[in-house]
Amino acid sequence: MRGGLVMDPQLLQSSIRRSSVTAIYSLRAAFYTAFFGGPFAAILIHRRNAELLGRLDRDRGVHIAALVLALAFYVAGAYVAVHPEVLAGLPPELKPAQFVRYTSRLVALLIWAGLYFRMRDEYRAARLQDAHLPGWREGLMWVLVGGVASVATVMALAVIFKAL
Amino acid sequence: MSELHGLQHQIGRLLEVGRPRDARALVGKALALDPADPDTLCLAGRVELAQEQRGEAERRAHEALARAPGHDGARSLLFDVLLADKRHADAEEVVLERLRDDPADPDALADYAQLLVQVFQLDKARALVAEALRRAPDHPSAQVLDAVLHVIRGDDLAAADRLARLVAADPEAAHVAWTAMLVLGERGHHRQALEIGRQLLRRSPDDRELVDAVIEQRLASHWSMIPLWPLLRGGWVASAILWAVAVFGLILLRPFVSELALLGFAVLYLALMLYSYVGPPLLRRWLRWRGF
Predict the structure, then answer these.
(1) Do A15 and B92 touch (CB under 8 A)?
(2) Under an 8 A CB cutoff, do B240 and A109 touch?
(3) Count of domains in chain B?
(4) Whole-model pTM?
(5) Which of B1, B21, B50, B253 is the most exposed place for a label (fewest CB within 10 A)?
(6) Interface predicted TM-score (ipTM) of this complex, two decimals
(7) Whether residue B152 is found in the same domain as residue B211
């Protein structure tokens, strides 16, 4: 080789498939999905981007951690639903259901932000190249799926707490 | 210099300064002198590619390769056509063929890195750019890609450093100006980025991508966007933080401040959010209509 320099031979191996993606769902789409869909929806859209980028295995641990955080929130939310006296310290104008809704959104945005930082380079590359998939239909689907899953999870947990 | 070589030189210069229409007229003359010359065929292909005639450009590339297998210019042209067509797997085949013949070719290494950025294989792209710069530290495309990859990583200082080296080497080059606009824009220096963009636009007024980029810099530096500066600078993370601060700030402040103050705070937040949705798109339309 020229100059006696040794290059990693892996660099000259083919790595692009016909199915290699050139666009992902934008950070904006992920933000709105998380904001309106809740913690599960936030995980779903980031997970879909990770799938498109072929890094599901690499990010499995982070997705599981996000799921654990989401479930921890839902457990707390179900407990509050069964024992609303836990939030007795709130101002009288702020109802417990309202507080739980805001906190749900906060948790969803924390998950969104955490998963964004995990794939920050890819999101930036997509923004610089304007390489975004149209996201409103899929985003709406994840908002619905995430919302339904959230409600179902909280209701199931509330039933368990009532039975205990 | 023969007449053919003279024409080829002129065509190359016209392409460099962004005048493909003028170059096309000379291509006809060059092809009349020797329709089978691979260099002329490649230049004809470059003119067609510059005018978005990718099918014809690809045909020229294949014709040149049929006459001179392994012709570097033809393979480079074919790569550029496939890249423009987003046929990434095919483009990879072409560039790997070039690298099999010469693994140390910095042009091919930089081209491969550029391709990999488009398919989000960023780590491999970084390694290839590093390799290209090891072999040719002043290689323009590799340096530009290096700056872009630093911007992608969020390493603004390294991107600015790379930009400074590019400017020192060739301050007049269009690729340097493009990179400067990108790096300065990402670092929040929108006025400087705008000035550079305007200079580029004088040279290439029909470049739609450039027009869009300059409009974005004009928008970001417009006085009416000052209230939105944290959101423009911090992006969606700033939006999320602002929401959390507004909502939970209102909840926490409720026992300590009057209802009127809380109402004012809430109205201010809602107004800012509404403005962030409506303001930039309206300003963008206005700038397109009025000019910038």
Answers:
(1) yes
(2) yes
(3) 2
(4) 0.87
(5) B1
(6) 0.86
(7) yes
